[in-house]
Amino acid sequence: MKKSFLLSCMLVASLSKLSAQGVINVQDSISTNTHWTCDNQYLLKGYVYVTSGSTLTIDPGVIIKGDKNTKGALIVERGAKIMAMGTATSPIIFTSNEDAGNRTYGDWGGVILCGKAPVNWNAGFSTVEGGPRSLYGGTDIHDNSGELHYVRIEFGGIAFSPNNEVNGLTFCGVGDGTSVDHIQVSYSGDDSYEWFGGNVNAKYLVAFAGWDDDFDTDNGYQGKNQFVVGLRDPYAADQSGSKAFESDSYQSGTYTGSPVDNTKLTMPVFSNCTVIGPMVSPTSTAFDPQYVAAAQIRRGSALSILNSIFAGYPCGLLIDESSASFGSTVANIGSGELQFRNNIISGTSSTGGFQKDIVFVKDGARSLTPTTSNADTTSTGTDWSTLASVAGPWTWLTGAANANKIYSTEQTGVRLGNPFNLTNPGMVPTSTSPVVYATWKGNNGATTYTFNPTLPISYDTTGDSVNYNVPGVAPNFTTTKASNSFFTRTNYVGAFAGTGSTSDNWMKGWCEFDPNNADYTGNCYVAPNTTAVSTIGMSTVGAAKVFPNPAYDKATVLLNVKQAGDVKITVLDMSGKAVMEVFNGHSNSGDMSVDFSTSNLSNGLYVISIQSDRKVKTLKLSVIK
What we know:
By secondary structure, the chain is mainly beta. Residues 1-21, 376-382 and 532-539 have low confidence and may be disordered.
């Protein structure tokens, strides 16, 4: 296996020889199909490009380090793919090549995916920020840049200059044929995640202790994201003003933002987010003053945030109405393209005499210090007063149609476990949180009922309201932005359920909240307190695939068995629970084909587990009906 891998590496432009320590130095271009395995670690030196027509496959547990001296970065160019197939017990690690205890922000460049999906640049494409040569953009909304599953990206991200930055994980014109879930970006030297156009979708994203923004959306990005976490270090913020969400549609060189054409708007949807800022209390001063807001929506953006929790930011929602050349953010509110519904805002700053749950500014005025009033009263041109359907920022935020809830503090209101803890964050709601708890009297007033978080929401009040089941703060998946089949219809707002099950915390095991001291000396990473099953070697089972993918009513697993023996094929959901046994028996050597029905599987992403001789190979399968 190693010999064949090294032979393929010799075909790559400048892939250095294997060092005695089992570290492969990777530089310049990867221009043939390449497979990174746990036999080695990999060191990115300078910009490393996966070129068009090539696929980089990375096994579970592989450790890839970015060289600090050359600011190594991995760029997957248009027409190329990355297949980074980590697992909950063996996530793939991208990290600094510095020793434990010496790692810090911006040690290396980060990971960049480039696709052929639409962007709103006038030319229809652009060049990646930060120095890479790569172009992005096109016309294929279903463009496929590969898969990222259970991947950690740590200490990347470099801000060379304003608007010339490399982030922890960057999506440039990436299409929705790309599959992304269970990603943690930590200690990024710029934004944790940034999207430049495209429409890639993702679930289970974690941004931890980033420097600038957690989730930055630009250039016509129109994807969907669910189950999203942001947690900040109070003393690390950027001079540009740090936010959990920052969103822009237009800038110099892009579409002008005509109000009659929304096709080039930045209008992604985020649902079920839990975003924790730097302020443990509204009167706290123990944080970097460059923190700004939980979300800043500006320059004609139509970012929608639904069913989410925001806690501990100086300002909650900052609406920034830019000049006409950048479109109208407020007009997007009036048209319903920008929605902020069924959210909780808690613990915003009370300095200056009022809670800053929402602030409206014009042309960026006071956007870095939104502390003097809820709205600019001296602004001219387009502002809230020009919209008959919107009576003002506070009225809009708290109106019945939007169903947002305001709490003065997280501790007395939202009541999550321990959300401000930076080493062991407790994001799951406690048993008394309004996210998972409420009581009400039956119709006869004699019986008191309590919300059951293990059951679906029900507004049925017939009889004695025995079927009624609604938490204190309920989500809504019937709005125009939330009804898409991509979204899992939860009975809770925020990123975590509160049923009391250990599976409620989907970050457990594969996430790392002390990456500076993590041990990355081995060649195959196994998450602490877990037991990873090794990958099947080529001597036992060779090539394996599942098709069609996505599957509709049936699918086929095709694999090559190198050595006769027992084989078990199981379908798992994304929590690791077995939902279907496809095959369990003896197989002779040779090609093996197993058909199975997907008719009883819900829409979503599944793992095909192929076990043999106490080893396992995993494939991902998407089911769409």
